[in-house]
Amino acid sequence: MSIPFLLSRRALVVAAFLAAALAVAGTGQRADASDDVALNFVQELGGQAVAVLRDHESSTFEEREAAFRAILVKAFDVPTVSRFVLGRHWRTASEQQRADYLDIFIDFIARVYATRFDSYGGETLNAYQSINDESGDTIVRTRIERPGGDKPVHVDFRVREKNGDPRVIDVVVEGISMLHTHRVEFSSVINRKGIDGLLSDLRARVEAPLEETAN
Amino acid sequence: MATLRRWLACALLTCALLGGAADLRANDAYGDDDPLEGLNRVVFEFNQAIDALVLKPAAELYVAFLPEEVRYRVSNVLRNLGEPINLLNNLAQGKFERAGATLMRFSINSTFGVAGIFDVATDWGYEHTPEDFGQTLATWGVGDKPFLMLPLLGPSNPRDALGFAVDWVADPLAHITPADAGVARAATSGVSQRAEYLDELETVERTSVDFYAALRELYRQYRADDVRDGAPPPIMDVPDFDFDDEEWLEE
Question: For A61, which of A94, B23, B136, B218 is 20 to 30 Å away at the CA?
Answer without folding.
Answer: B218
